[in-house]
Amino acid sequence: MMLNPLQNMFKHIIPTIVLLLLFGTAFPQNKRIIDSLYKVCNANTNDINSLFLLLENLRFRDSAEYVSIAGKGIALAQKNTDVNYESLFRSNLSVMYGYTNDKIKRKSELNTALQLCASGNTKSKGHCYFRAGDYFTDLENGDSALYYLLKAEEQFDKLSGNCLMQAKTYQGIATIYTNKSVIEKQMHYARIGYRKALACGKTDGLIVSMFTLAYAYSQRYDLNHVTNKLDEDSCLQLYRKITSLKDASDLTMNSAIGDAYFNIGTHYYAEDNIKYADSALQNFEKCMATGNSPDGFRTALMNIVKARIFVAKKQFEAAEALIAYVPLAYPDINANFYLAIDYYELKARYYEARGNYKEAAKNTGMQMQFKDSLYNIDKLSSIKKVETEFTNYKQEQQLKEAQQEITAKRKLNYLYVSLMILSLLGLVFMFRSYYFKQRNFLKEKALMEKEKLEAELQARLKEEEALNAQMERELAEQDKQIAIQDKLLTEQQKQKLQQELMSNQLQLERKNNFLKEIKEKLPTIQSPQSADLKTINRTLDKSLEEDQEFELLKSSFENTNPRFFSVLQEKAQASLTKLDLKYCGYIKMGMGTKEIANLMNIEPKSMRMARYRIRQKLNLEKEQDLDSYINGI
Amino acid sequence: MDKKTLSIVSYITIIGWVIAYVSHNNGTEKASLSRYHLKQSLGVGILGIVIGIVINVIAFIVPSLATILSLASLAILVLWIFGIINAVNEQEKPVPVVGAMFENKFSFIK
């Protein structure tokens, strides 16, 4: 055989017992306590604490009573709007429904309890989470169970005095890790649970934590007998410690002591080692001394082991008695595969030892049948495990993918956001540039217009300057012309004056002549008044003297018109005498030949000769008239 | 308020336009700059409303295109800002692309 049947047994008995403990069926119905609590509750219908204590002491199998007490408790809690007690009652009720396999009601009560305890105190939260963890463990949803149990642990850490619940919580966590085959975590939590139970100090909690730790040790020992050799001893030590607690004052889990004894016993006989058979039997006796187990499982198993010992010791009658007793202790033996395998294996051994090979073979056959079923179950469960692992793996992959998608999307988001920001900035700059361009454009336009105005003004300025210059020129010309005209005028005036002078001279000459004639005629006149005659003569002489003075003045006329004489000299090549010049002057003044002769006291003939000479000097032609020629200069 | 302020305010939402319009009507000197910009801002506003309605209708019918078309409302914003810049520079320049449409339309703005 591959597996030692007792080892097989050993392997599987503990979780069963542990689960039983978890269910709390290990509580014996302590009749006295219950009766006294009933009295208290009936006396005081508002005592919710006693009601809860009563509920905790009832057994789950008395479902009707349990439901009624729980109902009362819930009603009372609702009346007082006490969230904590209501959640406590409901969570305990859910456990009971679990026991009666009423899954729907269990789930509903649990959900209500969880909702309620969310606003409750630490104790109610701890209880609710623990029950939830329990529920999920039954559903084989290890992760949810773990979640709730860890939450329960958190709550119980804050409390003190809830030793049993705390220990059970740690037990639950360790069990989950057992199912997941993570031995380190199982050990870890079992140790923590034990430490905390020691600190807490209550016996029940201590017992539960010790069972948990012992089981962890045994699991580790099973992994590797060689390296974990000490774990076997640690395990046994813990069981012994449990048995030492049997006299503790606050012990309520009496069957736990029996279980400890039982485990020690089975361990002694685990290797089918006859050496320790007696020790095993002793422990079994002690176990039976502590009282019956709640159901026949432990009794049946113990009897199987005892029978096996007796067979090995060849005490066949005792063995036979025990073999017959097993089905009585546990009627539906075929329902429990482990028990069935061990039972039939025992019977096969018995018959083999007795020599009844036919029966032996039959029983071996039965055993094989059950082993196959178990194997199939095992296979199924391992397949399921692999499946769940695969789905887990797939989910993890999906998660990773989703996370990657999220990060990628986030990066994309960042990209979009940065693009938007860039485009916004671009827009802002565009607007700015447009604005400034317009401004510049306007400024430049204004500047250009100014320049145009300036240019225009300058042009106009230049025009005006040109005009000014022109006007000045005109003015200058006009001045010039005026000057010329003035000159002409003065020349004309001069000529006029000269002519006037000449004519005046002529007139004077005539008057002089007239006077001369008078003078000449005077002597002819004989008059008595010679004095008057003398005065007249004197006046006449005076006038003649004046005339001569005037002559001199006239000769100085040369100076008034020098140009005339210079031109004349030029024409005559400086051959004119002074007299000639005088002649010309008188001619210029407009005096005739005779007059000139009179004035200069010369004969007209000599005058004419003078004229002829002048003509020759001036180189005049025969046709040219001297007078006109001289006047023309 | 002077014509530059008036033309800028006319671009700031409908309320601003109403304020500017009332002020323009009640004022003594009706500058051509403010008249011009009142027309432009009204045009841009009406265009914005029309585009909003169009986008909503399209979003109702074809939801996927809506996000892309909503960029058109960004275009309205851009036009609006151009208009404000023109007003600030006291230029009677039309808003790009669509401004030419609004130059001679609203004859009730005198």
Quickly describe the structure.
The complex is a heterodimer of chains A (633) and B (110). Chain A has 633 residues and is mostly helical.
Features:
heterodimer, A: 633 residues, mainly alpha, 0% strand, rod-shaped, disordered N terminus, B: 110 residues, 73% helix, elongated
Biggest sheet of chain B, in brief? none
Order of helices and strands of chain B: HHHHHH
Count of DSSP H/I helices of chain B: 6
Rg over C-alpha atoms of chain A, rounded to the nearest angstrom: 83 Å
- Based on Cα principal axes, name the global outline of chain B: elongated
How many individual helices of chain A? 25
Computed CA radius of gyration of chain B, to the nearest angstrom:
15 Å
Number of strands of chain A: 0
Describe what this molecule looks like in 3D.
The complex is a heterodimer of chains A (633) and B (110). Chain A is mostly helical and 633 residues long. Chain A is 83% helix and 0% strand. Chain A is rod-shaped, with a radius of gyration of 83 Å. In chain B, helix 1 runs antiparallel to helix 2, helix 1 runs parallel beside helix 3 and helix 3 (32-61) runs antiparallel to helix 5. The mean pLDDT of chain B is 85.
Fold topology:
The complex is a heterodimer of chains A (633) and B (110).
Chain A: H1 5-23, H2 31-43, H3 48-57, H4 63-79, H5 83-99, H6 103-117, H7 122-138, H8 142-158, H9 163-179, H10 183-200, H11 203-223, H12 229-244, H13 254-268, H14 277-290, H15 296-312, H16 316-329, H17 337-354, H18 357-524, H19 530-555, H20 557-560, H21 562-571, H22 578-589, H23 593-600, H24 604-617, H25 626-632
Chain B: H1 3-9, H2 13-26, H3 32-61, H4 63-69, H5 71-88, H6 99-102
Helix pairs in contact in B: 1-2, 1-3, 1-5, 2-3, 3-4, 3-5
